[in-house]
């Protein structure tokens, strides 16, 4: 995971880092948080119907599930066949497409809504904007969503540093979108995910820093995290604790 609002990636670096998520769908689905229903409710307010939605970078279907709950007919796009296999196991009625955001095998104007949850930083934002505007109907909605650890909470701030987590809040962040979209606005939802210390040890294993690290660095990260949770904070194995998040949701309309 890159820092939200951090430096953009060239295509080679994007492919190199993103390759870490081409496998491991079952583990990712088990340890990554979902999204609050409030994110979809705000994103789609004012829309007169629940029509066709394209969930881009859908992964194992964490955001897809929220769209389905609110009545959308969802098509899921992701470069990882392994991740989409897990999505299909969870939601067998969802159409899945293995592919990239910059080149979508769908006809023009076939979608009312396009969402990109926890994945816009893996896209070329200008090329992706052009392609998403193409598949959206005129006036269609684009939603960009990030789950972020709430590092205003001191113990979470240190946790994020130990985990080398990039999904932390940058107050000045504004996502780049192409000229095909207008009226970009933001909504934040504060919430907490119930986890155990063991869940956090598994969560770190799903992050790009850990997945790209050599074995010695992985062992160090897990050792430091175990010390922090069990010795420094004094949590017991299996203890339930609330991990504070906020979800940052951005909405824009197609001007095509």
How would you characterize this protein structure?
The chain has 256 residues and is α/β, with parallel strands linked by helices. 36% of the residues lie in helices and 25% in strands. It has a domain at 11-149 and 165-191 and 246-254: Rossmann fold (3-Layer(aba) Sandwich). It contains 10 helices and 7 strands. The protein has a 7-stranded mixed beta sheet with strand order 3-2-1-4-5-7-6. The two termini are 32 Å apart. Residues 1-9 and 12-21 have low confidence and may be disordered.
Short description:
The chain has 256 residues and is α/β, with parallel strands linked by helices. The chain has helices spanning 11-18, 25-31, 37-43, 62-69, 81-90, 125-135, 154-163, 197-204, 208-212, 215-232; strands at 52-56, 73-78, 95-98, 111-117, 136-149, 181-195, 241-254. It has a domain at 11-149 and 165-191 and 246-254: 3-Layer(aba) Sandwich (Rossmann fold).
């Amino acid at each position: 995971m890159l820092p939200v609002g951090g430096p953009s990636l060239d295509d080679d670096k994007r492919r190199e880092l993103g390759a870490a998520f081409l496998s491991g769908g079952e583990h990712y689905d088990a340890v990554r948080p979902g999204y609050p229903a409030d994110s979809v409710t705000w994103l789609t307010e004012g829309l007169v119907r629940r029509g066709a939605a394209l969930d881009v970078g859908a992964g194992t279907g964490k955001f897809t599930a929220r769209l389905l709950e609110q009545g959308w007919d969802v098509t899921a796009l992701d470069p990882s066949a392994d991740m989409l296999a897990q999505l299909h196991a969870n939601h067998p009625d969802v159409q899945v497409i293995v592919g990239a955001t910059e080149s979508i095998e769908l006809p023009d104007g076939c979608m009312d809504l396009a969402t990109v949850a926890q994945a816009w930083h893996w896209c070329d934002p200008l090329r992706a904007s052009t392609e998403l505007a193409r598949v959206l109907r005129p006036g269609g909605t684009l939603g960009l969503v990030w789950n972020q650890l709430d590092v205003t909470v001191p113990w979470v701030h240190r946790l994020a540093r130990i985990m080398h987590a990039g999904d932390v809040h940058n107050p000045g962040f504004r996502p780049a979108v192409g000229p095909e979209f207008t009226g970009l606005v933001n909504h934040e939802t504060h919430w907490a995910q119930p986890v155990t210390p063991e869940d956090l040890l598994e969560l770190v294993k799903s992050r790009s820093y850990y997945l790209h690290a050599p074995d010695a660095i992985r062992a160090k990260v897990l050792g430091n995290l175990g010390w922090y949770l069990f010795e420094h904070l004094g949590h017991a194995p299996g203890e339930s604790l609330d991990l504070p998040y906020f979800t940052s949701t951005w909405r824009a309309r197609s001007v095509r």
